Amino acid sequence: MMVKRNSLIFLTAFGLLLTGCSKSGLEITKDDILEVARDDANATKSECENVSIKEQKGSYIVSFNTNGGSYEYKIGKDGIIKERSFKRGAKEETTETEKVEVPVKEEKSTTSKKEEKSSTSFDEGQQQAINAVLANSGLVQDDVTNITCSLDSNTNQYTVTFVLNDVTTTAVVDAATFTVISTILG
Q1: Residue 161: closest CA among 151, 171, 174, 175
Q2: DSSP assignment letter at 3
Q3: Most CB atoms closer than 10 Å: which of 12, 72, 160, 174?
């Protein structure tokens, strides 16, 4: 559990770093890209074998094997996952490939996505929790719809939910440190 918590702290800080890097033109390192892929695969450094990172046309191709199967990612130099592929064991027929859609920013608010956005205002603590979750996911608030945030005073944790590409994400954030504790998709 301590490894996961440290990883989450690192990823939250990393997400905040990415936000700053995108504005300054800096690119993240290959080690950072590998950490993004390992976190998405829920794999620790010691679980990964045959790690390969190749630079290709503005992106990195990251591949590695774990006991559960082999992973391949196409990750932009901004740290955003563009594509992911997973093969269980050595069986080709169980390959799952997912093209990750990068939201297109539009200036006009005539699309249905914009109309779905909630006009709810959040207090300072709620906004910090939302920002932590979005940074942890490599997103900004304009990328998602139907965002909600509530504080459970018994556990001192915020629960943040949002919808991205018709998938609901629920995350729990420590209210004292604004560290993302868990994230559940679906």
Answers
A1: 171
A2: H
A3: 160
